[in-house]
């Protein structure tokens, strides 16, 4: 048992969660490789193996753990020196036991979560075919329910999509959950981004939560021609240690039916502030969720009516099931800066922000409308609303990029005014990717105060 424990120690020491794969063979959606930073994902089964031998009081166990087999050291050392060594090694063993038994909580930085790409596979002893049977079988993750591990090249008759080259995935079947504990900063806002795809169920939903907050994200609409979409969700950390859970709420006749997930990442969100000369927060959309490098489809921001918890700080998305798309300059044409929003759901979804106004004052709302250079051709249009005013901005797109400015002037009728944007129509590219007009550079300024009334004598 002592020798088995020594082997377990060796395996545990090398059982690390790399934050990325080696550059060779990496999927395109992952960032350049970074050092793991010494983060350990402790497997609970090793604790049981280590517990007994590490706290043993016998010299045999100490010798087996810390000396080579058949060592003659006890005979060559004086008795007092040997007792000192035994006591020292017992202390080291107890220290190691405490470290091993401690909860596996990992400090997170912006980017992929530890084993967030599921590249570290479960041990075959904890799998039945592709079904994962061990609760802690996937390094860095804890699972429950019907969860499958899908490796590169795996194909199944009921699967609509094949995995991207070099990717590994988990498939969340009936009542399945994956979760990971992590160290965060209290009272700080974070966004979660994950790449997912439907498999065989039709009305799939994922419940993403960090206690006490949660959000149910409908994933039944496929927005890209590849079938893979990146979704985002945001939360405020109430504690320094939190547990992220992604749960499939569906129960299908086939227990394996459920969404596939190939990557999970996190990003710290800075609180949005009004900049000088703009009454709106994050009007340039530079603050937003994490975008996986190499993903040309952007990030979907789901319906949410609480702007303080939005992955797109300062903005709310109003819809029952539809989303807006957050896009970046490396993969799309952006009118200004590095980020913008593409309105991909027509009138079924609206992007809005509430702003403090003074009734009777006049305001000017300016913004840019264009296309993302993603092949979205035809007559695009953005509709803007504020107070009692409405403006429709048409844009003829060639699908190669470009933008035009627009201005809406209105008079406030209340202390709070909603600024609302939506696309006029549903559009699709030639490869069946849902698309729409791009919105950027949203600026709201006060123009003039109402004229003062003179008192007649």
TrEMBL record:
Cell location: Secreted, Cell wall
Keyword set, alphabetical order = Cell wall, Glycoprotein, Membrane, Secreted, Signal, Transmembrane, Transmembrane helix
Entry's Pfam families? DUF642 (PF04862)
Name the InterPro entries on file. DGR2-like_dom, Galactose-bd-like_sf, Pectin_Meth_Modulator
Q: Which Gene3D superfamilies match?
A: Galactose-binding domain-like (2.60.120.260)
Matches recorded under SUPFAM superfamilies: Galactose-binding domain-like
Q: Which residues cross the membrane?
A: 91-113
Q: What is this protein called?
A: DUF642 domain-containing protein
């Amino acid at each position: 048992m002592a020798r088995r424990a020594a082997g377990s120690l060796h395996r545990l020491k090398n059982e690390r969660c790399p934050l990325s794969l080696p550059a060779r063979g990496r999927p395109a959606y992952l960032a350049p490789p970074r050092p793991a930073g010494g983060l350990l994902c402790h497997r609970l089964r090793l604790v049981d193996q280590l517990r007994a031998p590490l706290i043993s009081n016998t010299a045999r166990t100490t010798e087996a753990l810390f000396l080579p087999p058949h060592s003659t050291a006890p005979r060559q050392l004086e008795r007092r020196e040997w007792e000192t060594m035994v006591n020292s090694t017992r202390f080291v063993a107890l220290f190691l036991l405490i470290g091993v038994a401690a909860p596996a909580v990992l400090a997170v930085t912006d980017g992929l979560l530890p084993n967030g790409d599921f590249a570290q596979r479960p041990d075959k002893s904890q799998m039945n075919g592709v079904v994962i049977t061990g609760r802690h079988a996937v390094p860095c993750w804890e699972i429950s329910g019907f969860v499958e591990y899908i490796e590169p090249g795996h194909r199944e008759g009921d699967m609509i999509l094949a995995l991207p080259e070099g990717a590994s995935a988990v498939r969340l079947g009936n009542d399945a959950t994956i979760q990971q504990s992590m160290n965060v900063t209290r009272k700080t806002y974070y966004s979660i981004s994950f790449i997912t795809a439907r498999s065989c169920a039709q009305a799939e939903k994922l419940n993403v939560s960090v206690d006490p907050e949660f959000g149910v994200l409908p994933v039944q609409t496929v927005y890209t021609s590849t079938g893979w979409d990146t979704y985002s969700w945001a939360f405020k950390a109430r504690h320094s240690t939190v547990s992220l859970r992604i749960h499939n709420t569906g129960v299908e006749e086939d227990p394996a039916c459920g969404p596939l997930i190939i990557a999970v990442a996190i990003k710290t969100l800075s609180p949005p502030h009004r900049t000088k000369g703009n009454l709106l927060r994050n009007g340039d959309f530079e603050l937003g969720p994490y975008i996986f490098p190499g993903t040309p489809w952007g990030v979907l921001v789901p319906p949410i009516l609480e702007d303080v918890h939005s992955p797109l700080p300062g903005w709310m998305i109003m819809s029952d099931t539809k989303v807006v798309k957050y896009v970046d300059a490396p993969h799309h044409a952006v009118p200004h800066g590095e980020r913008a929003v593409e309105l991909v759901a027509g009138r079924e979804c609206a992007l809005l922000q509430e702003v403090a106004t003074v009734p009777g004052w006049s305001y000017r709302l300016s913004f840019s409308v264009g296309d993302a250079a993603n092949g979205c051709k035809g007559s695009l249009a953005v509709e803007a609303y504020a107070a009692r005013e409405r403006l429709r901005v048409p844009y003829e797109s060639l699908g190669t990029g470009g933008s035009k400015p627009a201005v809406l002037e209105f008079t406030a009728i209340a202390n709070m005014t909603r600024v609302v944007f939506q696309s006029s129509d549903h559009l699709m590219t030639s490869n069946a990717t849902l698309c729409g007009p791009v919105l950027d550079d949203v600026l709201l300024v006060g123009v003039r105060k109402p004229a003062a009334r003179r008192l007649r004598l």
